[in-house]
Design goal:
five-stranded parallel sheet, two-stranded parallel ribbon
């Protein structure tokens, strides 16, 4: 009597002989997320390439697991280094989407915190604060900006070390349901990792965010102007081109964030210019949407 094939394979899991990587890529909608990232952020080619590479790694890992080649959950904790305003938070948001689409986190949300959200001010305060943040982030991505402020060795009564120990434990034991991204200035992050080797050993992907060039900052500013339904006059555009290199040389320059602040102040001056007109009864669409050269020239950047 011939054995039933189902009985013969009883107790042995059958794995497919092939995996449709292209089909899985299409179903995951990862391409749409990558395209969204391209639209949101000017430049950053090396960063975007690393995100694509991580997405490819996860797709191949998914293919391997489908064929019984599982080697344990991949380590996905990351370090984003770079100056302020270089798009780290935006990339973290899109990374959370990709992880959700590929099934590596359940919810795909981003919880963004700093030291103040994790570290308490008295004994017994830090652990519940840190655990509450982790609870909110579970199933998604926890983004810790300026992570090096967690560690203050010069202060013996600082409670940051307690938060660090809890985070390290969670990063190791619950890495299949939480991805942690540490962010901050490159040099300070390096010192932080040297002081806390446990973090370095748990970080699989280190991504550096370069500063924007003058040309890229101009493109970013134009995108911001368009998105807010304003228009720069030709003269105002010339002033903005002159503004950018001057601002880049000044203290506290923050890349795209500085462009946003400059435009916010220009909008403030435009509003006051319109309000100061003798005739305020017949404002046109052109009046309400146009930023003039004078709205930018009043900036302290142009003051002697």
């Amino acid at each position: 009597m011939t054995a039933n094939p189902e009985e013969k394979s009883e107790g042995v899991q059958a794995f497919p002989d092939s995996f449709d990587l292209e089909g899985e890529f299409a179903r995951s909608n990862v391409q749409a997320v990558l395209e969204k990232l391209d639209r949101e952020l000017v430049g950053l080619a090396p960063v975007k390439q690393r995100i694509r590479e991580i997405a490819a790694l996860l797709l191949v890992d998914k293919a391997r697991r489908s064929m019984g080649l599982e080697t344990g959950a991949p380590t996905l904790h990351m370090s984003f280094t770079g100056n302020p305003g270089t798009g780290k938070t935006t990339v973290a948001l899109r990374m959370a989407e990709i992880l959700k689409n590929l099934g590596y986190v359940r919810q795909g949300h981003l919880v963004s915190v700093t030291r103040d959200d994790l570290v308490g001010q008295y004994i017994g305060h830090t652990a519940p604060k840190t655990r509450e943040v982790i609870k909110k982030a579970m199933g998604g991505v926890l983004f810790i900006d300026e992570a090096y402020y967690l560690y203050k060795p010069e202060n013996e009564r600082d409670y940051g070390q307690e938060a660090i120990e809890i985070l390290l434990q969670v990063m190791e034991n619950q890495r299949d349901d939480l991805v942690v991204i540490l962010a901050g200035y490159a040099n300070r992050m390096e010192v932080f990792f040297q002081s806390n080797p446990g973090f370095r050993s748990r970080i699989a992907h280190h991504i550096d965010f370069p500063d924007y060039s003058e040309k890229e900052l101009m493109s970013i500013a134009k995108l911001m102007v368009d998105a807010q339904h304003y228009v720069l006059t030709p003269e105002a555009e010339k002033v903005l081109r002159d503004y950018i290199p001057r601002r880049m040389k000044m203290p506290h320059f923050a890349n795209a964030r500085s462009m946003r602040n400059a435009l916010d102040r220009a909008k403030l001056r435009q509003a006051n210019r319109l309000f100061g007109r003798k005739d305020r009864t017949n404002l046109t669409r052109h009046d309400l949407t146009t930023i003039e050269a004078e709205d930018l020239l009043a900036s302290r950047v142009f003051q002697p």
